[in-house]
Amino acid sequence: SLYGLGGLWGCLRCKTTVHPWSPKDTRVLVTNGVFAWSRNPMYVALLGVLLPWLCSPVHPLSPIWFLAAYLWLNQFQVIPEERILADKFGDSFRAYQARVRRWL
Predict the structure, then answer these.
(1) What is the distance between the alpha carbons of residues 87 and 37, in angstroms, rounded to a whole number?
(2) Are 58 and 52 in contact (CB under 8 A)?
(3) I want to staple 41 with a disulfide (CB 3.0 to 4.6 A). Which of 7, 21, 74, 97 is the partner?
(4) Cα torsion at 17, 24, 96, 89 (round to 10°)?
(5) Roughly what angle, to the nearest 10 degrees, separates helices 41-55 and 62-73?
(6) Distance between the two ends of the chain, CA-based, in angstroms?
(7) What is the rounded CA–CA span in Å between residue 43 and residue 102?
(8) Contact 45, 1 (CB under 8 A)
(9) In sequence order, which residues have a C-beta less than 8 Å from that of residue 69 and are 6 or more positions away?
(10) pLDDT, tens digit, for every residue of 45-92?
C-alpha cells in the first residue's frame, strides 16, 4: 500500500534501516511523513493487505488469523522495537510516543 511505501521511503530518505529484525541498527528517529500519523506505518500497511482476506468468506477462521497476526506483530515486533528505540533515543522517542499513536 502507499502507506507502507511512505514508511519505507521515510526510512530510506533518512538513511536508516527498514529491516524489522534489526532495530538496533536504526540511526535516525523518523517522525515525519507517514510516521507523523503512526509509529508503525509499514506494519499498518501489512495488516491492511490482510484486511480484504478478513472481510472475504475465504475461511471462517479468517478473523481469528487476522487478530493473531495483529497480536503477534504487537507483542513480538512492535513492543520490543519500542524498547530498543526508547533506549537509543531516550526523551526524543518518549515525546514521539506521547504525540503519535502506535497504530492509527
Answers:
(1) 22
(2) no
(3) 7
(4) -120
(5) 170
(6) 15
(7) 10
(8) yes
(9) 46, 47, 50
(10) 999 988 887 777 767 788 888 899 999 999 999 999 999 999 999 999
The model carries a pTM of 0.84
Q: Where are the alpha helices (DSSP H) in the chain?
A: 2-13, 41-55, 62-73, 79-89, 91-99
CA pseudo-torsion sign 58, 62, 66, 72: negative
Residue type, 74: N
Of 33, 38, 29, nearest to 93 by C-alpha is 29
Cell triple for 75: 507483542
27 or 60, greater pLDDT: 27
